[in-house]
Design goal:
- By secondary structure, the chain is an alpha+beta fold.
- It has helices spanning 18-38, 45-53, 104-118, 133-141, 153-158, and strands at 6-12, 58-64, 71-82, 85-95, 123-129, 145-146, 165-171.
- Helix content is 34%, strand content 30%.
- A 7-stranded mixed sheet has the order 1-2-3-4-5-7-6, sandwiched between helices.
- Helix 1 packs across helix 2.
- The longest helix is centred in the N-terminal third of the chain and has 21 residues, at 18-38.
- It is globular, with a radius of gyration of 16 Å.
- It starts with 5 loop residues before the first strand and ends in a 7-residue tail after the last strand.
- The relative contact order is 0.15.
Length: 178
């Protein structure tokens, strides 16, 4: 991460300060609003605010040690069940524009994966918009692959609301037993 030292703290979104939640929403809006509007979803502040602030959401917030009072990135995730298996579902990975391209997103995903494996999750799952080329490249580099329940091209053609995104996953590493 090119000389920077980062730390991350996790907290339930329901106990996060209003300022933290608004910062998360603002960063997501800055990074993603145009991409959401290009996709069939559109951007809805109220829906994204409710998602980010849900009591089911955990926020993993990164800070640079040179300015620890200012967050620079976050991951929002939930523990869920997909195909009857426990998963950690990443709702957002957002890095402030001035902190991008420094390895911070990869580091936060590694921390998130560690959390998932420590909690016995079978996989980490996330949704990525096709137009989010940086995200598509990052997740590919980190070993994420198309999840079985990602919409197919035929499904997206039949139902346009399924177009424009993929659901990706990374399986938990095999556990070694003595």
């Amino acid at each position: 991460m090119e000389g920077s030292v980062y730390s991350a703290t996790a907290s339930n979104a329901a106990t996060a300060s209003p300022a933290t939640l608004e910062w998360c929403l603002g960063l997501c809006r800055t990074n993603m609003q145009a991409l959401y509007q290009q996709a069939s979803w559109g951007w809805k502040d109220d829906e994204k605010r409710a998602e980010i602030s849900s009591g089911q959401t955990t926020l993993l917030i990164a800070r640079d040690s040179s300015c620890p009072e200012t967050p620079v990135a976050y991951v929002s995730y939930r523990f869920e069940c997909e195909d009857e298996a426990p998963v950690l579902y990443v709702y957002e990975l957002q890095v402030a524009p001035e902190s991008q391209k420094r390895g911070l997103g990869s580091w936060l995903m590694a921390v998130t994966e560690w959390v998932a494996w420590q909690h016995g999750m079978h996989r980490v799952v996330l949704t990525v918009l096709h137009e989010n080329t940086a995200g598509v490249q990052l997740y590919g580099k980190l070993g994420y692959t198309l999840f079985d329940n990602s919409p197919t091209a035929a499904e997206a053609k039949e139902d346009p609301s399924l177009a424009g995104y993929n659901i990706l996953c990374k399986l938990a590493p095999a556990r070694k037993y003595l």
